[in-house]
Write a structure and sequence with these properties.
With about 170 residues, this protein is α+β, with helices and mostly antiparallel strands. About 45% of the residues lie in helices and about 20% in strands. The strands form two sheets. The chain has a four-stranded antiparallel beta sheet with strand order 2-3-1-6, with helices on both faces. It has a two-stranded antiparallel sheet with strand order 4-5.
Amino acid sequence: GSAEVFSRRRATRFAELTDQERMDDAFIDPLTDLGNRRYGESQLESLLEAARAQDKALGIVFIDVDHFKNVNDTYGHRTGDAVLRMVGQNLAHGLRGTDVPIRWGGEAFLAILPGVTPEALRFVAERLRMLVERSWLEVEGEQLRVTRSAGAVMVADAETVEQALDRA
C-alpha cells in the first residue's frame, strides 16, 4: 500500500505575482487555493506567447469531476467543496513546479504544462487520473471517492488558446 500526504501549495507561478496582486486575491480561487480562471486565461496567453517565441511546446489538460452534481445532491455542498479541494490538491501536487494548476470553474480544472512532450502530457494526464481515483474523503463513516474525465492537447502552431481549450 501507499499513502500520499498533501500540504498547501499554490501554483509556483504565483511567486511571480506582485505584492498587490497577491493582496487583492484577484487571481486566487478561495476554495482550492489554486489560480482561478482569470489567472488561467492570463497564463495561457503569456505561456503560449513564450512557448512560440522559444519554439517550445505547450500542453493543456482539461479536467472535469465526474457526476459532481450527484455528490452535491447526495452529501451536500460542504462535502462537494471538500471534494473540489481534494481534486485541487491532487492537481497541485501531481504537476511539475513549472506547470500551472487552475480551478477553471465549477467542477472543472485546468493544468497548463509548458515545454511538455506529447508522451509526458499523456503520462501527466494518467497520473492525475490515478491521484483523483485513489483519493477519498471520509463521509458518514464511509469512503467517498470520485473520478474525473480529462482531455489533453498539445497547442498546435497556428491555434489560439480558445481553439486549444475547445479541443481539450
